[in-house]
Amino acid sequence: LAKTTQPISMDSYEGQEVNITCSHNNIATNDYITWYQQFPSQGPRFIIQGYKTKVTNEVASLFIPADRKSSTLSLPRVSLSDTAVYYCLVGDHGSSNTGKLIFGQGTTLQVKP
Amino acid sequence: EPEVTQTPSHQVTQMGQEVILRCVPISNHLYFYWYRQILGQKVEFLVSFYNNEISEKSEIFDDQFSVERPDGSNFTLKIRSTKLEDSAMYFCASSAKNTIYFGEGSWLTVV
Predict the structure, then answer these.
(1) Mean pLDDT over all residues of chain A?
(2) How far is CA B39 from the centre of its chain?
(3) Looking at chain A, which residue has its C-alpha nearest residue B38?
(4) Nearest CA in chain A to B5
């Protein structure tokens, strides 16, 4: 399982775009990159997942360069309710794997008014 | 949107008692997991379960813990002889292929 490194904390203001970058230098060929959001006393909530290039859904975009050694989660126009911990995880959760996720400390995003 | 549901949301138990935490995974998922998070700490993997057997477990998941899928829908975590240090939020999760979805958690307090 590839280790990930991400900033411990970030501050932003309402309406701004937030980009959180995660390093995963030892990512394996079969690994996917997944981002979760966690509010206090709640379970991690799936945000977005990708393998390469760019993935976009209704809440975020995920940018993955060609070497896949890093990824950037982009949250457009954040609001106060986006204040949470964001986790970047890398692994092969496919049917041949147990799907074990190794959580780090995550990035605590504080959105200010 | 389908979701993983967990009960109870909060349980207080006395040290030494047995606790069963229940989960209903997303209906077409085949892989099931338990994680826990002690207050202020990281989310930790406990166990993964597939095809009615444990596929991987962590060092935390010792003989005190067991999992079961008794009826094809529920997925349970049993903690025997609870200790103070078992106090944590326990998350059930499930997946079909590459994406793992978590429940809202069961907060266990051992007193």
Answers:
(1) 92
(2) 16
(3) A41
(4) A43
- Starting at the edge strand found earlier in the chain, the sheet holding A61-64 runs A18-23, A70-75, A61-64, A53-56
Residue A108: count other Cβ atoms within 10 Å of its Cβ.
15
Measured in angstroms, the CA of A68 and the nearest CA of chain B are apart by 17
> Inter-chain contact A103–B43, Cβ cutoff 8 Å?
yes
Partners of A89 in the β-ladder: A34
Name the percent of chain B lying above pLDDT 90. Answer: 84
For A80, phi and psi rounded to 5 degrees? -55, -30
pLDDT confidence band for A94 (50 / 70 / 90) = low
Q: Is the pLDDT confidence value at B91 over 80?
A: yes
Name which of B9, B56, B102, B108 to mutate to probe chain A: the one with the most chain A Cβ atoms within 10 A of its Cβ. B102
Say if the Cβ atoms of A103 and B31 lie within 8 Å. Answer: no
Taking 90 as the threshold, does the pLDDT of residue B96 lie above it?
no
| CA pseudo-torsion sign B73, B106, B85, B19 | negative
pLDDT over 70, % of chain A: 92
